[in-house]
Fold:
Amino acid sequence: MDKLLSEFSIGLFFWQTVLFLALLFLLRKYAWKPILNAVNEREEKIADSLELADKTKAEIETLKAQNADLLKEARAERDAMIKDAKATATQMKEDAKSIAKEEGNKMIASAKKSINAEKAAAISELKTEVAGFALDIAEKVVRVELASDAKQKELAEKLVEDINLN
Structure:
């Protein structure tokens, strides 16, 4: 330290101070403002970027909420469509059942009509045949009964009496 104090020169100190002040003046005049401007600009850019990031984050949250709402709406719409499809399918089944039942009833009614018609035709045919048999039998009985002239006269008188009574 003694050496440092022994080598101290006022002239050198003066010129170093003058050079330092001149350098400080030049730096202040030409470099300080551009450096401060660059730092301020960078600070503004960072602030703007942070603000933009906050806005973007808020928009993302809004979009997430909208997406959730859209998903809820889509699910509700899907559920409604499924419900409608099930209702339509059930209605179609019921319609098909009623149509089939109606067709079955028509077929049964048609079959009953056909059976009744055939039954009536069979009864009519049976009556015709029975009537024919009855006539054949009556003819044979009458031939046997009316084989003699006396029996023929007796029958004629009986028929005349019946006609007179009426």
